[in-house]
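To: structure subgroup
Subject: Chain for Friday's discussion

All,

I'm putting the inputs and outputs inline so they're searchable in the archive.
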Amino acid sequence: MDHSIFKKITVLTLEQATVAPYLTYRLAQDGMRVIRVENPAMPDPNRYVGENRLGEEGMYTYFLAINAGKKAVTLNLAEEKGRDLLKELITGLNVDIFITNQLPRNYEKLGIDYSILSNAKKDLIWVGITGFGPDSNEAAYDPILQARGGLMELTGEKDGAPVVTGIPLPDMGTSEHAYGLIMKALLKKALTGDGSRIDMGMFESTVSWLTVPICLTKSFGNAITRRGNTHEFFAPVSVYRTKDSYAYVAVGNDRQWESVTTLPPFKHLAKEEYKRNAGRIADVDNLNRAINEVTVNYSTDELIGLFNEAKVAISGVNTIEGVLEEPLVQKNLLSSRDQITNTELTLAPPPSMTPFLKETGKTLSFPPRLGEHNKEIYQDVLKMGSDDFNRFVEGKII
């Protein structure tokens, strides 16, 4: 496959918050030309979340994490001239993919409805990301989706309150699902020349991860809920305190448990009732207490050495700083440098290193300032004259 083909794809995106920006960040990592469209007076609120480390408004740290590799223009779609200009962008830039996470009630009002934009460009791939589908205008914040979608019910201590996951899975999971659908739409376009409409619901995406809980609840009447760090079907599987931090141990079968009990510190746990997984699960609380009484006497590194000897899976519980020290992470970290402030960002590695990122030395252009590429896009690409450009700026269209 000719991977350079992604460089020929243009994405125009009316995006804000996380779900659409993370999706287009993934597309930028493939080498696609991604152009953000923002209202000049009311841009992406995430531009103002986090710390102002660059010393300028609209470039706060939270925004910087998932917006490298993109360009940015401003456009007021509440004005008819702005909506007309959007169509010019679609055709003049030969846009392949249009993405938005606006509420559906705003589609027609902003001139971004599928019927409107596909009429301007027949083979357009149109992606609308919503909380609860294109027929709902209910606001969809990630923790609300975690609560309603069952993730919080499954996260936390067994006897404790529900807890949100450490990353915004409804946001980023939806982005990944949309990424896959876009790739299918690109294949369809390559084979048939036809565009596509993609409606991606965050609630549906979230619930789709509940494979085992839904199957066992509906099919067999099981009551599935949070269980802390233990596993419903295997024991011992949990986090254990060590002399200096924590370690996660996962015993996957009876043979592995037998290996654990051959280690001198754990020989007293070689009980008949623990020989089978079912027996260990039946007494998991007492078993875990007994294991903890041993593990607190060893450092994490010492414990890892012991369990490696028994060929049983174990890991320290990494801090984010610890994750950054992992060789597989270190070699795939991305970077982005600001030509104005000389600020350098270290960015999370992609799920898979793309040919484009290899070609660029794992670097991406710095996250764009609000309207940073207005002149480049409107004047250089669309050939808008200076007088027209200035008139649009003065009229707050751009």
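Points worth raising on Friday:
The chain has a mean pLDDT of 97.
The CA atoms of residues 40 and 130 lie 23 Å apart.

D.
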